[in-house]
Amino acid sequence: MAANPEISSQLYVESKNAILAYLVQNIDQKLLERGDEAMLRARVEELVEEKLRAEKVPYSRQMRNRLVSDIADEILGYGPIEPLLRDPTVTEVMINRFDQVYCERFGKLELTDVQFRDNEHIRHVVDKIVTPLGRRVDESSPMVDARLPDGSRVNAIIPPLSLNGPVLTIRKFSVDPYTVEDLIGFGSMTQQMAAFLAACVKIKLNVLVSGGSGAGKTTLLNVLSSFIPEGERVVTVEDAAELKLHQPHVVRLESRPPNIEGKGEVKIRDLVRNCLRMRPDRIVVGEVRGGEALDMLQAMNTGHEGSLSTIHANTPRDAVARIETMVMMAGMELPSRAIREQIAAAIHLIVQIGRLSDGSRKVVSVTEIQGMEGNVVVMQDIFAFQQKGIGEGGKVQGVMQPTGMVPRFMDRFAAAGIHMPNEIFRRPTT
Question: Which sign does the torsion angle of CA 15, 21, 26, 30 carry?
């Protein structure tokens, strides 16, 4: 998408900068402190019109409205990217350079017409995000993870680590998280799979959601968490709080980075250990990425069944290998076979989700961990997505269907009073 030449013109930029300076001098500090956005925006619009009349700038009504909007976003929001953050169709915003801003819509990346003045303008927006959180970004601390007030996840990295200037990535938080009906409607899973996964959560199987970056792991974890019965105490552990559970008895824990002096850090592993002392019925870990994998496996193997988590991996087999590596990162010198035995005993199900070439997100397999044979963790797909080809408009064609394998834990459904017919696992004959 090409930038609007009128908006990127020198006259427009100069007008905007002059009006911003005028606003700084004339806006009431008490109004800023009150934080009433509607009143602030009205006052900003009033002052902008006042300045434009005084300067007799030859702008059309459309351009004057755009200028008012841009300046209001600069003062009250996060500058040029504010319209993207307000757009419900945008799921991610990526600032690569001051003059190159991408966004993700419907799983596809697109170049926007949004531009910053320069690198300092991006730094100003980054500081506006992290300063209220007691964080900083400078040469001594050139990377930061943060969260906007609405829950959106933010990552910023600046020179010397970033060679193109400051880079800002914002994963937007969904105000209304997707439900299982939404995922079925999108074609991300079938009605059969949804019923099966809901039953697996209810009978307290330990489930791991695996997938690549941006595949929809947290969305799926949120949906699976919605199947937890309301009478249970759920403790969630996350790096940046994104899960939105609606059960009445939920305790949310969030890790904390070190402060400016490098002290006060609380890691995911510390929180996982602590939540074991909080009498949880369920532990939901947003993502395992380090030594906390060992603590989670031990919790799963010592009575905390029904735990849920996500992991970055491209296949269920890769997920098992990654957990093994993470357990080694915990500093325990355990032989590989002992670690694999713990994995095979702790995790019942791996749900693999992927983002396909057309931008759609699908559950591509539901895999049961069946145990050990020799030194190998034995796994079996229960449902699998079979891609048939590419249709019109690049849309992926395929079918999600049972593999014909019946899981070994069928007796647990019966014991819980859940009717799970064998037909749900029958492979279609055609």
Answer: positive
Helix (H, G, I), strand (E, B), or coil: what is residue 122? helix
Residue that has been written with the tokens 């938080």 in this structure: 173
CA 19 to chain centre: 37
0.85 exceeded by pTM: no
Q: Which of 270, 307, 314 minimizes the C-alpha distance to 286?
A: 307
Tell me the pLDDT of the chain (430 aa) as tens digits. Answer: 444 444 446 676 677 777 777 776 766 666 666 656 677 777 777 777 777 777 776 667 777 777 777 777 777 778 889 889 989 889 899 999 999 999 998 888 999 988 888 899 899 889 888 887 777 788 878 888 887 888 788 899 999 899 889 999 998 877 777 899 999 998 999 999 999 999 999 999 999 999 998 888 999 999 999 999 999 999 999 887 788 888 999 999 988 877 767 778 888 889 998 998 899 999 999 899 888 899 889 888 888 899 999 999 999 999 999 999 999 888 878 889 999 999 999 999 999 999 988 888 999 999 999 999 999 999 999 999 998 888 887 888 888 999 999 999 999 999 999 999 888 998 887 6
**How many angstroms separate the CA atoms of 254 and 267, rounded?**
9
3-state class of 80 per DSSP?
helix
The answer to whether the beta carbons of residues 172 and 90 sit under 8 Å apart is yes
Name the token pair of 72: 């209001």
Q: Which H or E run includes 16?
A: helix 10-26
Task: For the beta carbon of residue 65, count every other beta carbon within 10 angstroms.
Answer: 13
What 3-state class would DSSP assign to 38?
Answer: helix
- CA 100 → CA 128, 165, 173, 313, distances in Å? 20, 11, 23, 29
Q: CA angle, corner 199, sides to 241 and 428, nearest 5?
A: 115
